[in-house]
Specification:
The chain has one domain: Gcn5-related N-acetyltransferase (GNAT) (Aminopeptidase), CATH 3.40.630. The chain is of the alpha+beta class. It has six helices and eight strands. Strands 1-2-3-4-5-6-8-7 form an eight-stranded mixed β-sheet. It binds coenzyme A (COA). Coenzyme A binds next to β5, α5 and α6.
Length: 191
């Protein structure tokens, strides 16, 4: 996912946008209902157009040459019914973002990043837990993602949040790097 790669089982970025446009307007009215989620640590809310400059700064600091462009983020903003695009705000500024996407009963994390100055403060954890809550409420049962095998911080974070490796994708990224597909259940255990 993320480093120039996309979603589900592909590693190419544009594939994802084709998929978004073909998406059935499954939960138009219902998606509009959510706006602001104050989690246990900081406000998390729906991303807005005026957040894009801050999001692109975090993206460039996190992914360098693989960074998504302003236009790509605006594509997500333009699809509020289909995409769950959240930002975490600390001291009035965007400190991190997550982009999720759902189709039938499967959902995908398309991107997540936190500004370097705000890392290891549970911001990514709060964003992911918020995304999970929204997708669970919408009836999704699993959440998947693709991550470079050498991205230890992200893999450790995902494992801590209940994701397990399901398979490896060789030569997933433009630089030929392999990836792990990871997945977690959104169904809460009855314990
Ligand atoms: C991965 C990333 C989103 C984590 O964000 P974060 O807000 O710092 O994460 P949190 O504070 O919520 O979670 C911290 C957990 O992540 C893991 N983690 C974070 N940094 C780590 C590191 N350098 N080494 C190992 N594990 C690390 C640990 O499990 C840690 O839990 P712990 O503090 O109990 O050990 C952030 O490092 C980032 O934006 N990286 C660049 C973009 C990126 O790689 N995104 C994911 C691509 S798949």
């Amino acid at each position: 996912m993320l480093e120039g790669a996309g979603s589900a089982t592909t590693c190419s970025r544009n594939e994802r946008f084709g998929r978004i446009r073909g998406f059935k307007p499954l939960f138009h009215a219902r998606m509009a209902a959510w706006n602001i989620f104050s989690t246990e640590v900081m406000p998390i809310r729906r991303a807005r157009r005026d957040d894009i400059a801050a999001i692109v700064r975090i993206e460039k600091a996190s992914f360098g040459r693989q960074a998504w462009t302003r236009a790509e983020f605006l594509d997500y903003i333009a699809e509020p019914e289909e995409c769950v695009f959240l930002v975490a705000v600390t001291d009035g500024a965007v400190a991190g973002y997550i982009v999720g996407f759902g189709y039938r009963n499967r959902a995908e994390v398309d991107s997540i990043a936190v500004s370097p100055a705000h890392r290891n403060q549970s911001i990514a954890t709060a964003l992911m837990n918020c995304l999970k809550r929204i997708l669970r409420r919408r009836g999704f049962t699993t959440l998947s993602l693709t991550v470079r095998v050498d991205n230890t911080p992200a893999i450790e974070l995902y494992r801590k949040l209940g994701f397990a490796r399901v398979r490896r994708i060789n030569r997933c990224y433009e630089d030929g790097a392999p990836a792990w597909r990871m997945r977690t259940s959104l169904i809460l255990s009855a314990k």
